Amino acid sequence: MPNRKVCIVGVGKIAVDQHVPAINDSPDWELAATVSRQGSVEGVPTFRDFDVMLSERPDIEVVSLCLPPQPRFQYARKALKAGRHVMLEKPPGQTLAEVHHLERLAEEAGVTLFATWHSRMGKGVAGAKAFLAGKEVVDGNISWKEDVRQWHPGQEWVFEPGGMGVFDPGINALSILTEILPKPVHVIRADLDYPEGRQTPIAARVEFTRGVGMELDWLQKGPPSWDMEIRTADGGHVVLRFGGNELWIDGEKKPVAEIEEYPALYARMAELVEQGRSDVDLSPMVHVSDAMTLGKRNVVESFAF
Ligand code: NAP
Fold first, then answer.
1. What is the mean pLDDT of residues 237-245?
2. What is the distance in A from the centroid of ligand 1 to the CA of 10?
3. From the CB of 14, is ligand 1 less than 6 Å away?
4. Per the structure, how many domains does the chain have?
5. 127-181, pLDDT tens digit by residue?
6. How far apart are CA 205 and CA 193, in angstroms?
């Protein structure tokens, strides 16, 4: 496979924690540039202006957008119009229609658009999906609780319109749920807790069809819980822990895949570009949108980082 040149846009928490190491450890990829107003990666050319990078570096064929969702559409649009393949961090945009627009642009330009869901690459997810195939789901519980101050330190954008609040991590759970369930579910009720004066929820409880329920909380103290369990009509019981990375079936811990989430995303992107295909599944975002549309809004204590 050829060594593909990629440019990371938005050198912040996720770029530094995951994207840069995944690219550097892969023989298929070369981090050829970054675009960031303040950040940089040692030894890699930095551009402060995206348009300048696009015009000066026609050799870079892939752009990986690690920005928050609010500014992402404008960058993706420019990259696709400039004929570059694009990887979108999750969630793929602020709205569903934005991402449908990007899909059309990618198709017109004949390039790859990959709306990534890193939690779908959790090591136990494929095993859970295989176990549930053809089964009838009768009950499910999702518990996705973490400390926003640890995982989004000082990131005010998560509480701005389009930032999704606690659904920013919650959509990771939904990306797993929509991947492993044999038949889709939909939201039938939601309760959303908005801190006084904030634009997005800090906690939520969501009920889906087929007895599936989800609890999200961003004020968890101590270690996060990124867990889900599903029961089936034939007595089957599947548990995914640690964000989809540990798998238990009928009370027994099962072997899981070896590859980590972000190396798996870049391997998938290399494959998509090679095959001239896109991968854009918006089903996790549809659930968030529906929870926001149906959700009963409670105002809770104000929040500051
Ligand atoms: P972040 O650190 O707050 O932002 C990433 C970078 O984007 C910033 O360093 C900033 O770089 C640039 N940026 C921020 N606002 C911008 C704006 N309005 N216009 C242009 N550039 C802007 O966020 P993050 O935690 O890395 O999250 C980014 C995305 O990754 C989110 O969609 C998030 O859901 C996803 N993600 C995050 C995590 C996590 O643990 N935090 C995990 C998985 C996925 P410059 O100021 O230098 O331009």
1. 98
2. 6
3. yes
4. 2
5. 999 999 999 999 999 999 999 999 999 999 999 999 999 999 999 999 999 999 9
6. 9
Percent residues over pLDDT 90 in the chain = 99
108 and 135 both lie in a single domain: no
Euclidean distance between CA atoms 181 and 27, whole angstroms: 34
Our answer on whether the CB atom of 224 is closer than 6 Å to any ligand 1 atom is no
**Is the pLDDT confidence value at 1 over 90?**
no
Q: Please identify, among 81, 115, 149, the residue that sits at the C-terminal boundary of a domain.
A: 115
Asked if 90 is an active-site residue, the reply is: yes
Instruction: Please identify which residue in the block is written with the tokens 């000066």.
Output: 56
Are 167 and 292 contained in the same domain? yes
Per-residue pLDDT, 3:
85
**Selected catalytic residue, list 5, 78, 90, 254:** 90
For the record, the structure tokens of 70 come out as 């609010």
Q: How far apart are CA 124 and CA 128, in angstroms?
A: 6
Amino acid at 117: W
Query: What confidence score (pLDDT) does residue 2 get?
Result: 60
- Cα angle 111-114-120, degrees, rounded to a multiple of 5: 160
Q: Which domain holds residue 173?
A: 119-258+288-300
Residue 72 and residue 183 in one domain: no
Q: Provide the percentage of residues in the chain whose pLDDT is more than 70.
A: 99
Looking at the structure, tell me whether residues 169 and 58 fall in a common domain: no
Q: What is the dihedral of CA 6, 7, 13, 14, to 10 degrees?
A: -30
- Closest C-alpha among 96, 92, 90, 142 to residue 261: 90
Q: Residue 267: inside a domain, yes or no? A: no
pLDDT, one tens digit per residue, over 18-55 is 999 999 999 999 999 999 999 999 999 999 999 999 99
